Structure formats: C-alpha cells, structure tokens
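User: Quick one: structure for sequence A, then sequence B.

Assistant: Sequence A:
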Amino acid sequence: MSGVDGSVRANGRKAIFITGAASGMGLETARLFAGEGWFVGGVDVNEAGLTRLKEELGADNCLVQRLDVTDREAYRAALDAFAACTDGKLDLLYNNAGIGRGGPFADQPWDDVLAVVQVNFIGVLTGIHLAIPLLKATPGSLCFTTSSSSATYGMPMIAVYSATKHAVKGLTEALAIELKPYGVRVADVLPALIDTPILPKGAAASAPKAGVFRAIPPREVAETVWEAYHSDTLHWYVPRELVRLDHMATLEPERTRDEMAAGKLFATIDAEVAAATPIPIGATAG
C-alpha cells in the first residue's frame, strides 16, 4: 500500500531485496515472493525489465530501482530507499546480479576480466556490507547469494567467472559464522545450467535433456530461495545431484581435473548419481 505522501509502504509485510531482478532467476524469485505476500525490492541495470516487473507485481507491492551494483553510493541510496518502505527491515537479501564473459583466459580482454570481478564479487561484497545493519535489525533474516556449479571446481573457459563464484562460496561460509550471533543466517545457491539470459545464445537448447547439466528453468532456483528462507542449510545445489561434483572436487581434485580435461566429467557425475543412493534435501559437500 502507499503512504499518505504517495510513497509505497511494506506495511508489515516481509521484505526481500533482489539484485538482478529484471530477468531470469531474480525475476522468478520476485514473482514467487510477491505471490506469497512479500514486499519486493528489485534492482537491475535493465530498466525496461524493471518497468515490466513493476507492472506485473503492482506498484503497491514493490519498489524497483535502476542500480549498477558496482556503484557503492548508488547501492547505499537504493537500500536507503528500500528501508524507508520497510521501516528499516530486510528479511531476505538476495545477491543475484551477475554477468558471464568467458573464453580462454589468456585471450580475454582485461576490461572483461575486471567487469566480471566487479559485478560478481565486488557487487556482492558491497551489497552485504551495506545491508548488514538492516539484516541485524530483522529477526530471522537471511543473506542469500547466487554462487554457481563452477564454484565446485574451477571450470575452463570461464575461469574468472568460476573464481568469483568460489569467492562467493567462501564468503558465505565465513559470514555464516560471523553473523550467526546476530541471528542473521547466510547461505548460497549453486546452480548448474539455468535457462537465463546469462547463457550464450542456444546453450539451453543444445544442453542434455537429462542429467546433472540439463537446462533447468529459473523457477526452480526461485523455489530454492523460498526453501532456503525456511531452513538453516548453508549450500543449496540446483539440481540437488550437483552435490556429487562438490564431493568429487573436494576429495579427488586430480581425478576431477583429468576427467574434465578429457571431456568426461559430466558423464562421470551422471553415472555416479545413477549408481548412488538418493541425495537428501539440503545435502552439502563434506
């Protein structure tokens, strides 16, 4: 609902702030949480997508703002505007914005390398650092970030992207301990091949129809975010069978390297999943 001054208000509803909200996993998460009665803060550099999001959710149910997550002061202003709508509360911060620029590392333009680091990791650091006071002020809050299947083992041709996602995973683990005394939970999602605009054109269509690296609709990640809010699990794998790769990469890094170099890794993981017992919800690598 809107206040007497015409500004939008959460009016006691739970509130989620989503970066990269204009498409893909962020958009589906905004839709799901709004459908559950939450107030949605959505930011992105895609202004047309944000306009469509506002029209879909309704102006009384969201605050959408253009934001480049690499701009710290703009990020601060966006969070301040959101907090003004929610009386200073933030139930769930979803650090989802990311870019993918790949190719052989030796051939990558240096500007592309830095852009991936700035958006995928520095943007996450910035958002969390600025949002911690809001998270601390909100009982049961969750700081949630999109990592990647490439955070299980470094993936060739997306080396820098993979490195940023490893960094996100490590940050998640450290902050889960640091923020626990304040009642703030910290977790991440490690998606495999999700059918979103970040993928190269045609990648989803050419993906396997079955197996761990099949193309998965972004709605499944949104449902994982919802499940994570109601849980204390640290790492979430989409699909859940992906935890097998994390196990293998942790316990057998040389084997993982050699199978990946030979182009056999994904088939190996699928075979191990088929032969293994079912993976429990929230399973994590040891």
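Sequence B:
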Amino acid sequence: MQKKRFLLNIVVSGALLLVSSIGLCSLPSLVAAETVTQNRSIIDEDNRTEVTETTTAPYASMTYIKTGKSWGSGAVIGKNTVLTAGHIADNIVDDFASENIYVAPGRSGAKYPYGKFKITAIHFPEEYAADPNSDSDLAVINIAPNAAGESIGDVVTPLALKVTNHAEIGTPITVTGYPQDKAHATMWTDTGKVVQHIGKRLFHDADTIGGQSGSPIYNNQHEIIAVHTNGNANNDYGNYGAIINDEHYQFIQAHMK
C-alpha cells in the first residue's frame, strides 16, 4: 500500500550568507537572498517517541542548535565539532557570535545537562556554497570550550561517521532531533529504514517535522550515515538527507577540530 503523507510546510525567508568550505564564517564569500520552502513528512501514523533520558547514549550526543528566531538539530562528531544541515547553518552564519546563538547537547526542554556551547566557525561544502542544494546540504560547526575549559566532545561522546557510498534498501536507521510541533526543545526519535539511495541523497521512512533538519541519520551501531534535511512531496521515496559518501566524509574530516 502506498504510504500517505501529512506534510507540514515551513517557509524560511531572508538572506542566506554563504561561505566556502575552506573559509571561516567571519569571511563570507557569497551572499544570496532567497526563499526556501522545506517539506517535512509524517509517513502513515506518527511513530515518533520522546526521549526523556537525554543523557544516555546516543542521545547525549544530539544537539539543539539555537539559530536566533528558531532552531535546528545536529550531532557531536568530534572534540570541538558538530555536524548539521547546511540550511540550518545558513541561519546563523552571519551572527553566530550572538548570545542568542548556541549549541546545547542533550537538551531536554528547560534542562541543559551539559550546558551551552558557543560557535567559533562554520564550514560548508564548496558545492553548497556555490549553489545551495539538497545534494550537499551539510555544514560543519566548530565549537568553543565552555567556561570550565571543557570541549563539547569531552562532556559527551562524539558519534562516529560511516562512509556510505552505497546504502542498501531496507537498512534500519534512526533519526533523532528537536521537532517544532512538540513541546519546545524536547528531543524526539523515530526508527525506519532506507527506502532508496539516489546520487548523494539517502531516502528513509522515519517520521520528521521542521526543526529536525540537521538530525543525524544513523544505523544500529550509532554511526551517522547521512544528515536529515528534507521531506519529499513529489515521489514515493519519503524523507531524505545528504549521505556521508567519500566526498562528504573528506569535507567533514578537513574541518574537524
């Protein structure tokens, strides 16, 4: 039976400030003004469940990313490094030093079990900086140590990346992040499977809503194989993200701190 979809459309408007993958966000190379419509899908019944024990693995490594007026999701992948979606980083690249912009691993509503961390730099793949698109919708965020001198990767365990040049259909996956339709800043998760792999996009049937962009798509070994970026209203493949292939892995590794 063909899956039914309930679509929540979120329109993000404004100037997108882009930088090259080799430059710091304090030195932008390109500014593009545009409006982006992002579709998020609930597939059949909404099977997302709230994560209440956010200090347990792998949930402690999931990050709430405050972007000023809104938020996104991400994952700790290194001592001072967080992985998220490019269009989430677009929303903070021009004012990441603001007190209103921060990363909070394991956040659960009003609870910050590991505190807040400030951003020092943002990196985009060259392909995304030149032409924002879903194939390369990734960003690496470098994080400053907290007031106690602790790195984000010291207080939580970074998640591993798994190079995935070919994703087998049916592979079990999980998507965990911070949806906008639930109580503010609560963490939710859902399991699903890979339903298709086309080019640099991995399609899956886990339920997601706006706010979960940037969430890791990870396997049963808690290895990140893609970054969730979009829902899809135009075909039967469901939600999708940018896969961690050789190209994207090399980009991420080049900006790990």
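Residues 103 and 117 are 5 Å apart (CA to CA). The first helix runs from residue 86 to 90.

User: Thanks, that's what I needed.
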